Structures are given as structure tokens and as C-alpha cells.
């Protein structure tokens, strides 16, 4: 066995080992955070649902403190949820830029991952004030609060329908393909290989993060409306994202997942109408 082959195997093991460790730590912290949030309880609301304390300020807290706490929790949760489907994309990036020292390649890979999660961090920063505002309105307007279960059902139904669109298929393809091919699919100049520099790595990570956030828009919305710190919802959404990214026929998997989501949306609407 050649020295280059041995080095490649060591590099591969190190990469997947670090990825597994990062996933384990982020999943453990997410579970602990969800358990802590669950122990705080939830507020019963008109319409037979409960509001998570995620969107509320507790005694002694400041709004900047609440926002910082939410953002930290959000980033760790996104790492746990997205890393299983991100790891293959990072590995394909390493294959594309290869031909350099392991240390430099490692730093470039970290740069891609950091840019990817920067996009999700920005998404969380936009979500928090919106969630707080909607929670405040629901507490002040009982009629609005009673409409929330129906609204959740409609949102879930729309998220399921989104799984069948060409828009979803295009962004899913970008998340599944190698870097140069992804650029071609997205009508950008094709590259035989990405330049091995930090600026390109950062831009590539941003591009991956944007396509991923678009591709996961419906599934992420379900997470937000069904329970942003509900471990069961997180597990289901994570499984759906991972399956449609990694199985051989991802577009078909996305449609199967969409059918299940549409069915869940119909059941939620029927339940909300029945309770009404």
C-alpha cells in the first residue's frame, strides 16, 4: 500500500471522526436544552394549544439575554440537525479541492462549514423577533390564539405541498451534487475544481447554506410551528432532511415525505375544525 493511500485513509478517518464527535456533542447539548425548556413548562392558550417558553421572557431576564440564549440554542440545534446531511457535501468539497497539505485542507473545510452555519445563524436571528412578536399578539388577542391550531395545520399542508415543486427539486439537486456540478445546475459558471483559498471556501459554504435553507424551508417551518424545542419534531425533521439528501433517488424521497406531511396537515386541520 502506497504512502499516499495510507495518508488518504488517515485523513478520511480523522474527518469522519471529528464529524461524529461534533454531532454527538451538539446532539447532547440540544437534548439537554430541550429537557431544560420542557421542565419550564408551557403556557396554555385559547384554542387548546400551549405556547413554548422559547418566545417569552422569564423573570429576571432581559430581551438581549433571551435573544442570545435562543440564538445559541438555535445554532447548536442546527449543527445537530444538519450535520448528518452536510458531512457528505464537505467530503465532496475536500475531494474537489484536494492536492494540498492535510492541515490546510482541514482549515478550508472548517471555513466551508462555518459559512454554512453562518447562514443558519442569520436565519435564526430573523426568526426570533418574528416568533416573539407572534407570541405577544397571540397572548393579547384571544381570537388570534384560537385560530393558531388551524393556522398550523394550513402551514404544515403548504409545507408538504412544497415538497412536490420544481423549486424544491432544483435546490435539493444543488445540495446533493458535487461542487462544480451544483454550480451548473444553479445556472452559475461550472468549475472543474474549486480554487483552494479561504475566500472561495467561504463563498462555497454560503452558497451551500443558502441552497440548504431554501431546500429545507418547508421542513424548517414545520419545526418552528410544531415545536422548536420538541425533540420528537426535531428527530422527524432531521430524518426527513437526511433521507432526501442521501438516498439514491432523493427527489422521489422528497415527494414521499411531502405526501406524509400533507396527510399530517389535513389531520391537523380536521382536528382544529373539530375542536372549533
TrEMBL record:
Q: Which InterPro entries match?
A: PpoB2-like
State the superkingdom: Bacteria
Q: Where are the transmembrane segments?
A: 20-43, 63-84, 105-137, 143-162, 212-241, 253-273
Which Pfam families does the entry link to? PpoB2 (PF09948)
Keywords attached to this entry: Membrane, Transmembrane, Transmembrane helix
Protein name listed in UniProt: DUF2182 domain-containing protein
Show the taxonomic lineage: Bacteria, Pseudomonadati, Pseudomonadota, Betaproteobacteria, Burkholderiales
